Amino acid sequence: MNPQENAPATGRQLSDVLSSVRSSYSKPLPGYEGQIMSRYQVGVCMDEVYPSIYIGDLGAAKNRDYLKHVGITHVLNTAQGDKMATVNTNADFYKSYGIKYLGLELLDFPSANIAKYFEESANFIDEALKNGGKVLVHCFMGISRSATISTAFLMIKRGMTAKEALIQIKQNRNVFPNEGFLRQLADLDNTLAKQRSHKA
């Protein structure tokens, strides 16, 4: 076995992995399986990327009736705010629908420190799944911030490497975190690999 295969990845290697994985573009919209209903008709774009974890965009986040319809119990907004390319929701927005909420004030810049939210977000998602819930993790377009946070969850709570987690997600949704976020995932990969080696 090549020891390099299990070595922590670099940000560049993660970018190459994402470029090599083909996404499934013909998946039906959750809740409309078997029906001829496009994402554009419903105004929602979200995909199940791992059992009970969905990545979506602004349209998905704002459509509370749809979220209730498909059984979403938790929403993690990785783009909370009122600046450009953010989504101005909060806990009160979902309260009457019984949906739990966590908001992260993050801009989609390579220099943004998304890593500081990895543990808190992973715990939020994990708690939801342990209680049989379904989680929407979203940002403005559902491509970078939400994908990064979802990847970190799979690494921290499901024991995946960064490559494995990104492949899992990219196969189900066409995501592409920015280069700074990929570097932070590579750093997390290295940290988790060291922790695993110490336990072995």
Automatic annotation (TrEMBL):
Biological processes, Gene Ontology terms: negative regulation of MAPK cascade
MF-aspect GO terms: MAP kinase phosphatase activity; protein serine/threonine phosphatase activity; protein tyrosine phosphatase activity; protein tyrosine/serine/threonine phosphatase activity
Database matches in CDD domains: DUSP3-like
Tyrosine specific protein phosphatases domain segment(s): 116-173
Enzyme Commission (EC) number: 3.1.3.16, 3.1.3.48
Cellular component, GO, one term: cytoplasm
Active site (catalytic residues): C139
Segments forming domain Tyrosine-protein phosphatase: 43-194
Alphabetical keyword list: Hydrolase, Protein phosphatase
Catalytic activity: O-phospho-L-threonyl-[protein] + H2O = L-threonyl-[protein] + phosphate; O-phospho-L-seryl-[protein] + H2O = L-seryl-[protein] + phosphate; O-phospho-L-tyrosyl-[protein] + H2O = L-tyrosyl-[protein] + phosphate
SMART domains for this protein: DSPc (SM00195)
Family classification: Belongs to the protein-tyrosine phosphatase family. Non-receptor class dual specificity subfamily.
Record function comment: Dual specificity phosphatase able to dephosphorylate phosphotyrosine, phosphoserine and phosphothreonine residues, with a preference for phosphotyrosine as a substrate.
PANTHER family (alphabetical): AGAP008228-PA, DUAL SPECIFICITY PROTEIN PHOSPHATASE
Full protein name: Dual specificity protein phosphatase
Originating organism: Armadillidium nasatum
